[in-house]
Design a protein that fits this description.
The protein is an alpha+beta fold and 169 residues long. The chain contains 6 helices and 5 strands. β3 and β4 form a beta hairpin. The longest helix has 15 residues.
């Protein structure tokens, strides 16, 4: 397992009903992956992750085991990494919304009404993959250029890393 650098994101598995729910959702929208959760490494053994109780700063050892880190795959300056960490920490306490999963599904099905998109954009709520994308976006690092930042799942992040790995080969 690669040691994470500041600002790297990690992808994990979630056990139980929550993991099964996310697995089904990712399969339903066409981005099934062996991971169901994402978090940002902010240094000194700490990560920020979105949870149903709100985004939290926890010890990495208390998080689900990371299956894959973004380490070495996303080119960034050291300053970008520091900003990602600062922005991830600023998102601690951000509420979570299961409606965002519905919005992603509707977008993938091509039937999302504008009011749903606007609700997600204005809500200030973030699921785990949105938290990762938002921290990166605030640092000027676009993981999915040209796409609405609220439309990414952990599966999208997994596929991004897989594509970056295969491009390096």
């Amino acid at each position: 397992m690669t040691e994470p650098q500041l600002g790297d994101f990690g992808l994990t598995k979630i056990r139980g009903l929550a993991g099964a729910f996310v697995n089904f959702g990712q399969w339903f929208v066409g981005d099934f992956a062996p991971v169901q959760h994402a978090l940002v490494y902010v240094g000194d053994g700490w990560v920020v992750q979105a949870m149903p109780s709100g985004a939290e700063l926890i010890r990495l050892e208390d998080a689900s085991p990371v299956v894959k880190w973004s380490t070495g795959l996303i080119p960034m300056w050291e300053e970008d990494r520091e900003v990602i960490c600062r922005e991830a920490e600023a998102l601690v306490g951000t509420p979570y919304s299961f409606l965002d999963y519905v919005s992603i599904a509707l977008e993938r099905l091509g039937i999302r009404p504008r009011w749903v998109l606007e609700r997600v954009a204005m809500s200030g709520h973030l699921i785990c993959s949105q938290l990762v994308c938002e921290a990166y976006r605030r640092a000027g690092v676009e993981l999915f250029p040209g796409k609405f930042p609220g439309d990414q799942t952990p599966g999208d992040l997994w596929n991004l890393l897989k594509n970056l790995e295969s491009a390096d080969v």
